[in-house]
Amino acid sequence: MSAAPTQIVELTNVSRLYGTFAALRKINISFEQGRCYILLGENGAGKSTLLRTIAGLLRPTFGTVTVFGESPSDQRDRIGYMSHAPMLYDELTGIENLRYFGSLYRTRPCLAAEEAMRATGLDPGLPRPISQYSQGMRQRASLARVLLPQPDLLLLDEPFSNMDAASARQMLALLTGLRAQGRTIILTTHQRDLAAPLADAFVTMQAGSVVSVQQQVGATA
After folding, report:
1. Number of folded domains in the chain?
2. Any bridge partners for residue 204, and if so which?
3. Range of the domain at 22
4. Is the dihedral of CA 33, 158, 167, 195 positive or negative?
5. C-beta atoms surrounding 102 within 10 Å
6. What pLDDT digit, counting tens, does each position of 51-92 carry?
7. DSSP state letter for 77
8. DSSP single-letter state for residue 4
9. Helix ranges (DSSP H) in 30-112
């Protein structure tokens, strides 16, 4: 008899207001360990706001969010968040960026900067600054930064955007491997067909609400 799935993220009646505008509306959803969830919806549906709320970067106006049974702000080192912006220093090379960000983690063992870059298909010896990277290379460098502390939960906002087909396939293969290691992945994308092989469930949002959760047939945890 298999063990019951572990819920590592739970949102209960979560709303996020900006004045009278509700970016999130009474969200009730949980996410299980070792699974990948794809957030779908039009621009403005609330996908990015949901990721930022789970990451602890936004506080809900109403409701509660728990990650690993605690407040997201108490579990920051276990959460890897990748935003639209690469959050890297343009004047530094990729390896200089990763060495710097790796030095900020005091209590959690990190990957070596070189290892994180190679994991995302980047050359640690590349001398050019981030400002001279292609958009696809920036995306991979941003993911390498996220992977440094070996997070248990990955929150990725449009990780495939502006990538060529080869880079997107490489990113997909990397995320598939991370999921197989037991990491939980929640990502947004407008490329449903590309992300489908990775997905355990599709979560569709509209106007700040979750309108459907579609389990993938044949998906494995």
Report:
1. 1
2. 40, 212
3. 7-87+152-215
4. positive
5. 16
6. 999 999 999 999 999 999 999 999 988 999 999 887 899 999
7. G
8. P
9. 47-55, 94-103
